[in-house]
Write a structure and sequence with these properties.
- There is one protein chain.
- With 274 residues, the protein is mainly β.
- The protein has a single domain, classed as outer membrane lipoprotein receptor (LolB), chain A, CATH 2.50.20.10.
- Helix content is 15%, strand content 43%.
- It has a 14-stranded mixed β-sheet with strand order 7-8-9-10-11-12-13-1-2-3-4-5-6-14, with helices on one face.
- A hairpin with a 4-residue loop joins strand 4 and strand 5.
- The protein is globular and about 60 Å long.
- It starts with 6 loop residues before the first helix and ends in a 6-residue tail after the last strand.
């Protein structure tokens, strides 16, 4: 005989499954916890000394006011602020390339036969890639480092606590009436996220990192995020980078971060009317 299950039983079961799916796992405090923010920052600094460069293949997805764009990328980064980002066609030919070094930021649109050049600043980079970071800070985030330079806060002003949901240490400090938060994974000391809030406690922007993968150069090893997401809700901006392949500390000669332009139209990013 088939037993009938009441509608209320089904509803309760569905609610239980929903709550279980939505409930975030809580990770316990590590057995050897970090004592304070100064010690955590020292761990991060030591970790950063083992990774200076990376080569990656990735997929970038952009969600904005103009819709969704998904492109394949080849990415090279080298400290302090050198990076090369090539947008690739399905046949692996280069459609466009962004190159930064200590002196210049260049974007070359091969299809449009034009180039944009200017100072390697956060303002100029935002005109090409809709994020708020400087080239140096982009390199830091891709290498899993904490972009401390986003704020000028001494170690003594950071409040630190364990975040069981993120499985990471959370650093929080007051900045210009608002708040800045960084998350750092225990033991690997890699960036696990960042968030800025205004004086009304509303989130201005976020960096979300996840799906960490351990990589090695044969001498050192570290974790690196294989998914990096930049979100600015007020600006209707959501840019994510999904890394398909990482190479740690490859040999990247300086000429890879220089771009000799052909005879094409050149536009100044520094121009006031840009």
């Amino acid at each position: 005989m088939i037993q009938r299950v009441s509608i209320w039983t089904l509803c309760l079961l569905a609610a239980a499954l929903f709550l279980n799916a939505c409930g975030a796992k809580q990770y316990p405090v590590p057995d050897e916890p970090v004592q304070d923010a100064r010690a955590l920052m020292a761990h991060v600094q030591e970790r950063d000394q083992s990774i200076d460069a990376a080569r990656a293949r990735a997929v970038m997805e952009y969600f904005g006011s103009e819709g969704r764009v998904r492109v394949r990328q080849a990415l090279l980064v080298s400290r302090p602020g050198n990076f090369r980002l090539e947008t690739l066609s399905p046949m692996d030919s280069t459609l466009s390339v962004v190159v930064t070094n200590d002196e210049e930021l260049t974007y070359y649109d091969l299809a449009g036969e034009r180039a944009y050049t200017g100072a390697p600043s956060a303002e100029n980079l935002a005109k090409l890639i809709p994020i708020w970071l400087s080239p140096q800070q982009v390199v830091q985030v891709v290498l899993g480092s904490v972009p401390w330079a986003l704020v000028d806060v001494p170690a003594s002003d950071w409040k630190m606590a364990w975040d069981g949901k993120k499985d990471a240490w959370r650093l929080e400090a007051e900045v210009n009436g608002g708040r800045m938060e960084f998350w750092v994974r225990h033991d690997s000391w890699v960036l696990a996220g960042a968030r800025a809030k205004n004086e009304d406690n509303r989130v201005i922007w976020e960096i979300r990192t996840k799906d960490f993968e351990r990589v090695s150069d044969g001498t050192h090893s570290t974790e690196l995020p294989t998914r990096i997401r930049f979100v600015m809700k007020d600006e209707n901006l959501d840019v994510s980078l999904t890394v398909k392949e990482y190479q740690m500390n490859p040999d990247l000669p300086d000429h890879l971060f220089e771009l000799v332009l052909p005879d094409v139209e050149q536009i100044s990013l520094d121009a006031p009317e840009f």
